[in-house]
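Dear support,

I submitted the protein below through the web form. The confirmation email said the job was done, but the results page showed an empty box. After a refresh the structure appeared. I'm attaching both so you can tell me whether what I see now is the final result or a partial one.
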Amino acid sequence: MNPELKDIPNHILELGLGVLSQAQRNTFYSSFGSDSCLDEGIYGVLQAAHAAELILKSAIAEQHPLLIFSTVPKSTKVDGTFLSLNDLFESGKTIQFFDLPEKLWATTGYKLDNLELYHSFGKVRNCIQHFATPDIEIRTETAKFIYQVIDPVLHHFWDLFAIEYVDICDHESDVFDMLASRGVTARYPEHYKEYAEDAYKKL
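What the results page shows now:
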């Protein structure tokens, strides 16, 4: 394997966590004075789905970077001895959102905790992206997707917490209240315990 491909899993994970932080900001918060007629929550849907795609791909790529590709360049189309990043950029095609859970299971043995939610949320994402916003509580559905689909993956592969990736300063002081108001519970590290317990005792 070309050594330059070895950093692909970490690169994808960092991107996924960054997009997840943006998704949670748009899911739980609204900007004051925004001129947009769109609910910022719809951006949270698109970003959460994208974050999941990247995070699942990172877990797959840890087994081998080329496993995230459904199509790779043929040896006759490559100049060097090994595939390069440029070869993949020019001719590679990665696995699509709806196919990722099966690929994740095949390569790692891990099955998503809530596959039905993964697929239904993907349909919501597609609806928003191509047609219109469906008549559902999109912020609640996004919160469920993050904490019932993405967070278990972060826990299983990297012992990370989704709650720590919210692009708002001091979010821990109120994000648990917003999760609780939507009936969503979250795993959390010890230093978030006081905030979480205060919020969840209201349920």
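Response: this is the final, complete result; the empty box was a page-load delay. The chain has a mean pLDDT of 87.
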